[in-house]
UniProtKB/TrEMBL annotation:
Signal peptide: none annotated. It comes from the Bacteria. This is 3-hydroxy-3-methylglutaryl coenzyme A reductase. Pfam families: HMG-CoA_red. It comes from Aestuariibaculum sediminum.
Length: 442
């Protein structure tokens, strides 16, 4: 049984590592070597990473890939993607190229409103609370002015504050439900600071309100926090073309492909087991760009799946139809993103990714990321409804298997050529490696 430790966060990095490897690892030196291999020799850069979080012991790398040829509203983009899954960047690139020849992606930001709430308890007369709220609302906004003034200068700020009665769900539970425009910032700190100020003003002003009894004056603030559910921070991305232009192979007509594709999307619309995997494919594209651009993929994930359930049943985030001979495939997804603040000005690779994307505004980034999701979904459905997913997936996975067996460059070259027109399976690759090695040892 390992022992607990107190004061761990105050130890130096090397002391933390010493404690950890000695407590948990059979070969402490080997564990230390692995950790060290991932440190950056550039001390300044390593310090930057050390200070992103508490108790950093090393860095955890993900590959940063790029998918070129994305034509979005007539502008060409090369999209950066940070992801470990072998086939994702290849699939995105393939979908980008496919739609490049068919007019590209069309996108539109529908709305950009963010949400935050002060949750509080009040057990008195609801009408007195409404009168108090109406009276105090201008002061809630003016007391937050020191926080909002810079955002207001740029055209953003607090949009509205409403009082919500939630007493049917929990006796005495109410909310201040506030909406915000945070422009190019994701806005989490801005929103949370405003909310905490609202809570302070609300509580202190209640003590002075004549319309409350002594008991009613005692409003209990439970918490003040932004909501990562932002159904009104919404973007739409779409592709469309004539059905006959959909095909690239002799094996399937454009019409047959369109029918199967729409069926696949319809299934994801009504069947949650399929919808989750369908949306996971979308998030393969979305998360990779969210990560590369220094945004919060947990927030994006939580929101996307809540949005996918907004009608009371988990469903597809994308939709497809054929009408008058035109195939249309689209996604509408809430994406709360920032291109200033947070990691965007700190992480050198995030800065590089944003430059690659022509320094997008948050609205432009919403459009690019929605496209990455739609492209990924298109690529997955295209494979699933034609060749099946494993052919492409395993081709990309081949390198992982070869690396597991520590194949040399020469072995990799021979085996990737061999598997160009052979089905890749784990066992087939293993026997091919064994075969090759037994031949060369003869
Ligand atoms: C794999 O990461 C993603 C897919 O399963 C998505 C899908 O099934 O649509 C291929």
């Amino acid at each position: 049984m390992s022992k607990s430790i107190s004061g761990f966060s105050k130890l130096s990095k090397s002391k933390k590592i010493d404690w950890m490897v000695e407590t948990y690892f059979s070969n402490a030196e080997q564990a230390k070597t692995v950790l060290k291999q991932y440190w950056n020799t550039n001390e300044k850069l390593q310090k930057l990473h050390d200070e992103f979080i508490e108790n950093t012991i090393t860095n955890y790398y993900l590959p940063l890939g790029v998918a070129p040829n994305f034509l979005i509203n007539n502008t060409l983009y090369t999209i950066p993607m940070a992801i470990e899954e072998s086939s994702v960047v290849a699939a995105a690139s393939k979908a980008a190229k496919f739609w490049l020849d068919r007019g590209g992606f069309k996108t539109e930001v529908i709305s950009t409103t963010k949400i935050g709430q002060v949750h509080f308890m009040y057990h008195g007369n609801p009408e007195a609370l409404t009168s108090f709220f109406n009276e105090v609302k201008p002061k809630l906004i003016s007391d937050a002015h020191p926080i909002t003034k810079n955002m207001e200068k740029r055209g953003g700020g607090i949009l509205n504050i409403e009082l919500n009665d939630k007493t049917k769900d929990i006796p005495g539970y109410y909310q201040l439900h506030a909406s915000f425009e945070t422009l190019d910032a994701m806005g989490a700190n801005f929103i949370n600071s405003c909310l905490e100020q609202f809570a302070k003003t609300f509580k202190s002003e209640a003590l002075l309100f004549d319309g409350f009894s002594e008991e009613e004056k005692n409003i209990q603030i439970v918490m003040s926090i932004l909501s990562n559910y932002v159904p009104e921070c919404l973007v739409r991305a779409e592709v469309s073309c004539k059905v006959e232009d959909l095909t690239e192979s002799e094996n399937i007509s454009g019409n047959e492909f369109a029918q199967k594709f729409v069926q696949a999307v319809n299934i994801a619309e009504i069947e949650p087991y399929r919808a989750v995997t369908h949306n996971k494919g979308i998030m393969n594209g979305i998360d990779a760009v969210v990560l590369a651009t220094g945004n919060d993929f947990r927030a994006i994930e939580a929101c996307a799946h809540a949005y996918a359930s907004r009608h009371g049943k988990y469903s597809s985030l994308s939709h497809a139809k054929v009408e008058n001979g035109i195939f249309t495939f689209w996604i509408e997804i809430p994406l709360a993103l920032g291109t200033v603040g947070g990691l965007t000005g700190l992480h050198p690779l995030v800065k590089l990714s944003l430059e690659l994307l022509h320094h997008p505004s948050a609205k432009e980034l919403m459009q690019i990321i929605a496209v990455a999701g739609l492209a990924q979904n298109f690529a997955a459905l295209r494979s699933l409804t034609t060749t099946g997913i494993q052919q492409g997936h395993m081709k990309m996975h081949l390198m992982n298997i070869l690396n597991q067996f520590e194949a040399t460059d020469a072995e990799k070259q021979i085996l990737t050529t061999q598997f160009k027109d052979q089905t890749v399976s784990h066992s087939a690759v293993v026997s091919a490696i064994e075969n090759l090695r037994s031949q060369s040892s003869l």
